[in-house]
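Ticket #4471: structure output looks truncated?

Reporter: J.K.
Steps to reproduce: submitted the chain below (105 residues) through the standard prediction queue, then opened the result file.
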Amino acid sequence: MAKSDSGVGRKLLLKSEREKCWHARDAYWACLESGRESGTGKANRCSKELAEFHNACPRQWIDHFVRKREYDLFKEKIEKGEASDKDIKSHMTFSIPKEARSGPA
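Returned output as attached by the reporter:
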């Protein structure tokens, strides 16, 4: 899938591979959002999308995308004035959710 960059250990994705990764990420986010809106935000209901996300994207990208999404959701809460002290403290010690880090069970 990915090609090494002159042996440095860094991987470069082709444009088609990047697009596949972004599409898988967006499908996973959409699934999570639909669960959040309906009140059933359990990640296991999105296991198919999560598996596709992990198959299509490098681990570093997944970590970055998850952190960015969590930050954007936190920022949205702050801007709306909906963030509690607990939200702020938990965001300060943020770690990537287990299911997103390890992939589907």
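Triage note (M.O.): checked the attachment and the full token line is present. Residues 14-99 form one domain.
Status: closed, working as intended.
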